[in-house]
Amino acid sequence: MTTAPVESEHLDVLIIGAGISGIGAAYYLQREHPDRDYAILEARTATGGTWDLFRYPGIRSDSDLHTFGYEFKPWRDEQAIAGADKILDYLRETAAEHGIDQRVRFRHRVLGVAWSSADARWTVEVERADVGDVVAFTASWLFFATGYFRYDQGFSPVLPGRENFAGPVVHPQHWPEDLDWAGKRVVVVGSGATAVTVVPALAATAAHVTMLQRTPSYILPVPSKDAIGNRMRALLGEERAYRVIRRKNIAQQRGIWWVCQRFPRFARRLIRRINAKQLPAGYPVDEHFNPPYDPWDQRLCLAPDGDLFKAIRAGDASVVTDRIAGFTESAVLLDSGRELAADVVVTATGLTVRPFGGIGVTVDDVPVVLADTVAYKGMMLSGVPNLAFAVGYTASSWTLKVGLLCEHFCRLLAHMDERGHDVCVPAVPDAAMPKRPFLDLASGYVQRAIDQLPRQGDRTPWLTSRDYHADVKLLRRTPVEDANLRFSARAGRPQGVRGVRP
Fold first, then answer.
1. What residue ranges define each of the domains in the chain, with the CATH number in brackets?
2. In what order do the strands lie in the sheet with 324-327?
3. pLDDT by residue (tens digit) across 198-221?
């Protein structure tokens, strides 16, 4: 924290981040606690988070919007797998309908947060880019809705000889508005969700697009429209149908994940068979579409309406499994000795994980090392008072988990109000409890940051659940109070009175 920032204002809750999680948190907070003062701090100039940041061709959700959307606001578009423009409209419409957009402080970049036990509050140091100064907010609670990746920088591995290449080398996270790929040869480096999205989008106008991968990914073709869901909407109306479609799709997601976890060899064979049917006769499926790991050890990629496979069948796109040895002025050189002619190279090589937006956290002047903490119910950190955060599912729709976390956060605040508590701290009861990484994915972007993330335990409530139905029980139905939380009242606080500020 820098010295002597200008003191600003005190709020009951400060939400950091105005993306899908921050807007959701604000909705639940003002619905359940309308008398609480809150604000959303957003470093950028617009709401929407990821969906406003990414501008690469074809960007879309990789979950259906009936589950990726909010439980309280039906998704009304016929496209269940939707593009960023429609998702952004949905988020901003939600924020405007509930007045949440009026609570956002744009170009407010949080520099650091510090908890004082003596004052029972957070001091939040914020740089206001539009004013050019630094101010200090104070808050009783912080809610981090920053996601887990770095907004200003994607992951770009060292590519040997890249400086020899004469054409543009572009990371999808920083897509230039003036990039022209029409009629050009494009090599997309990567095989994850971004590559699977961008390849067919580029192939529509490029001379040819090659997806160059070191390791194949599991890719599943799915309809972009939910035919059953759209029929239900016509028969039942938007509100009733949305509830039914949501339950149907939650069950479907859970079923696919369960089969992949319980019967990985069967799931592998099934996905391979589906891929083979989508590809030209005689295609080397095992070379390009047969990963060495089990399904859902890494994220399973979706191809809406089989768009990637259609581009391959049409001859507009191809897949090469190899490693980069170097570059010439107009080609990518491979370890096999092959050359891929290229005018444009797109490095769809993944995200840079950055928990809590890289914001430093201190408790009574002691820096919090995230890797030394254990996540409580996937939403708080051991030893850190009055701080909640939202990280969604990795094997299902992100927002399903975030909605439950927001509900539980509001229940926790109500519990504290009823009992006159000001401070809540999760405490691990058994220091010898086995621990493992917070995110159980073998994906490169997670493994690269494993030492920067909190840990999880081997038992509830320290186990970070990946099961929606288990989380419904834990976060929505189980009482808030348990032996793992330490509650207290601020010294000198009148008993039974909420909201008396320092």
1. 6-151+353-488 (3.50.50.60), 162-347 (3.50.50.60)
2. 324-327, 331-334, 339-341
3. 999 999 999 999 999 999 999 999
